[in-house]
Amino acid sequence: MKKWMKSLTAVMVAVSLIGGASSAVEAKSNLKGNIVINGSSALLPFTLQAASEFKKENPKVKISASAAGSITGPQSVRKGIADIGAVDWDASKNVPGFNKFDGLVANPVAVTVFTAVANPNVGVNSLTTKQLQDIFSGKVTNWKEVGGSDAKIVVVNRKFGSGTRVNFQQKALDGKEFMNKGDNYKEVGSSGDMKTTIETTPNAIGYIDLPYVTSKMKALSINGVAPTEKNVLNGSYKVWGIGYYMTKGQPTGATKAFIEYIQSSKFQNGSLKKLKFIPLSAVK
Amino acid sequence: MIDMNPSTNSKAPAELGQSFGKTSGSKFDRKARLRWSNQLFRMICIGSALFVCLVLLCILVLMLRTGVLTFSNVSLTEFFFSTNWDPENEHYGALTFILGTLALTSLTMLISIPISVIIAVFLAEMTPKWLRNLLRPVLDLLVGIPSVVYGFLGLTLLIPWLRNLSGHDLADGLLAASIVLTIMVLPTISRISDDAISAVPNKYRDAAYALGANRFQTVFRVVLPAARSGIMYAVILGMARAIGETMAVVMVIGNTAQLPNSLFTPTAVLTSNIVMQISSVEFDSTWNYGLYMMGFILLAISLLMIVAVRILQKKGGRYS
Amino acid sequence: MSVKKPAHPTLAYSFGKRRGASVLLDRLFTGLVWGTGIIVILFIVGLLFLLLEKGLPQLSWNFLYGLPSEIEEGGGIGPALFNSFYVLIISLIVSIPIGIAAGIYLAEFAPNNKLIEVVRICVEGLSSVPSIIFGLFGIALFVEFFEIGLTILGAAISLAFLNLPVLTRVTEESIRAVPVELRNASFALGSTHLQTIRRVLLPVAMNGIMTGICLTAGRAFGESAVIILTAGVSTSGEMWDFNLLSPGGTLAVHLWYVQSEAIVPDAQEIAQKTTAVLIIVALLINIVFRVPLWLNERKNKA
């Protein structure tokens, strides 16, 4: 047991040392070359990819990325605890449910396409904007009312504050409000949960970013237009949005270099495209 | 916390000094060293206890400080007695979540306590040694599986199964959540109870058997009452984890702010609502304050439940 | 221990009464316990099989050691796995001494009054605080107050806070469960309080304390909410990065990320393999913590 006491003291010393070390470092934590990114989880895959590529070219820059939720991005930036706030809408303007953030600059980084999806057992392939509005507001509760078989509609929604939800509401439902109660209504926290729920729940309808659509679910056409990259590029499919990196004022230093790297045609037409996002230049 | 230091300081040296002064009179430095290390050790222990209290206090202050701001915009009666949670339209009634948490925790405990205690008895009293040595690490292992894994299994296996069983279109709800929680707290409760039962001295069992008791009587009349304090602690710990668990619950409860009319109706509890919304609302909004307040209520509920379990235990203690 | 009298006089009488019924009860009880035991064992085996079946056969060194990939298949979990251990070890270094010392205080030194009773209830209550609130606390402390950003250090200490209450109470309960005779015998031999604690109480209570450490280590290893908030989802992207201020996405966080947001085509496979790795590591942790216990037991026998 003597050893135990010794290790206890050793541990105590180590703890105090670590404590000392952290207080020594905190003075120079605003070093150039340290980028903290927080915000939307839907933009995280390409943020992580860009970060690892960027770090190869600039080994001295440290990038830490987290994804607590879209609105966390601009809020953390405003509070000064993150350099970049990833968000799925332009947070320098008002959107339904969220006020604008003054003093933040929106740097567009990628185009994401959103689509309504349903379980494969649903017989419907296309819905009109009106039908979507009725389904998601709870007015229509049976698939036969929109041309399907006689089965109750299970509505799966993303949680409030999801960037996908904001975009889908604005662009697919024309700003019409979602239902928020009902026996056949549930909310999920992430794209992955949405994917799993739609795949495993018969008669379910939801919406998701295009890259997550799998063979075990059905992407629905809206007003007869299928959600494909081609239809986005030719302007017939309207349900897409731009993802932004919010910064406090114009970006500087390493942050600026990182954003420029993401906006460069090398990244946009390379890795970004491989991740099934659409390059910014393609839609303008 | 502070007022106890003098009392312990004055009591212990007397007790220690006497026992040592007589045995090793000549070796003064040994005596001094022992006394010094005793003192130091006590200080470390007191310091640690104070530190734990400090962390607790910080968390309480963090939640309460932000939480009370809710009531500058929302009346107490609305927050506690309304079931209408619709912050987008300025309705902040948290009753649904409070009731949901109470119902979910009770249901989970109802399922998990009997099973866990039986498993603990099984492990401590009945299994051969090799099986026990195999099973204990496996049970501990289940605690280490991330809650997202349990949630994912619940979402992909349990809910479709419950859906077929119940005939509902969407089987998310209290039952699914409590089954997932039961699986999560079962190892905690059974392992700590198992330790408590194993710690009961063998002579108690021998005495009971010598009096002609059979195994059932020994376990129920002697071993379990003797291990009661430990088992109660295991239950409290399991309950605390059930109240506070988020990541798994959020995947199977449905996250809809409504009072459920069956065990299969999507609903929400305090934790699931906090975890779903706290990262998606603005920092300085009544909504955010309300969520912090809900965190505080959560803590209050668990404290109440702990006190209740302790009172029950004291009452039960009278006749053993 | 609360019970000092092994059997009440009236109990001794009741043992003899209604022999037939009690034999039947005994049989029923034995059957019930064995039945439940076997069902739960089968359930656990089934659960483990389900979790390991798809992931385990595909595990390879490249996966364990490799860097994660967002686009191409075949990404690994190297840095996340490393971070998991690193965060776990730091958080245990912080929480074990403090937790055990606080537990010893509550069991041995604390006066028996209302205040301590309240403290005890609070400590138990603290263990029910959802981990996300510890995460928020971690943000407030490390990101906003100390301004060190999303770091391994912040995550490890927040995790330690999360585990402190459990460790404290488990230690206290285990020490209390040590029979009074042992303690008295030690005092009678003239040992000081510290010597009694070190040589008698802790070794005897070690079994329970180890259970507590295993449970907290397991929980720390599987925790994701705290880490997402305090250490981020990303890793520093290289192996063996011992910098305490690096971003510290752990394996559980990686699993969460892969399951909820990753676009990479083999996401499901990665999730399965990651789950298998998590389970194996959790098992290893349990075994590692148990080895000293077994050695101790052997030594005591000899």
From TrEMBL, chain B:
It is a multi-pass membrane protein. One of its GO terms (cellular component) is plasma membrane. GO terms for molecular function: phosphate transmembrane transporter activity. Keywords: Cell membrane, Membrane, Phosphate transport, Transmembrane, Transmembrane helix, Transport. It is found in: Cell membrane. Its main location: membrane. Residues 98-310 form the ABC transmembrane type-1 domain. One of its GO terms (biological process) is phosphate ion transport. Residues 1-25 are annotated as: Disordered. The chain crosses the membrane at residues 40-64, 94-126, 138-162, 174-193, 231-253, 289-312. Belongs to the binding-protein-dependent transport system permease family. CysTW subfamily. Part of the binding-protein-dependent transport system for phosphate; probably responsible for the translocation of the substrate across the membrane. NCBIfam families: phosphate_pstC. PANTHER family: PHOSPHATE TRANSPORT SYSTEM PERMEASE PROTEIN PST (PTHR30425), PHOSPHATE TRANSPORT SYSTEM PERMEASE PROTEIN PSTC (PTHR30425:SF1). This is Phosphate transport system permease protein. The lineage of its organism: Bacteria, Bacillati, Bacillota, Bacilli, Bacillales.
UniProtKB/TrEMBL annotation, chain C:
It is found in: Cell membrane. The chain crosses the membrane at residues 28-52, 85-106, 118-142, 148-167, 276-295. This is Phosphate transport system permease protein PstA. It is a multi-pass membrane protein. InterPro entries: MetI-like, MetI-like_sf, Phosphate_PstA. The keyword Acetylation does not apply. It comes from the Bacteria. Residues 81-289 form the ABC transmembrane type-1 domain. One of its GO terms (biological process) is phosphate ion transmembrane transport. Its main location: membrane. Gene3D superfamilies: MetI-like. One of its GO terms (cellular component) is plasma membrane. Belongs to the binding-protein-dependent transport system permease family. CysTW subfamily. One of its GO terms (molecular function) is phosphate transmembrane transporter activity. Keywords: Cell membrane, Membrane, Transmembrane, Transmembrane helix, Transport. Signal peptide: none annotated.
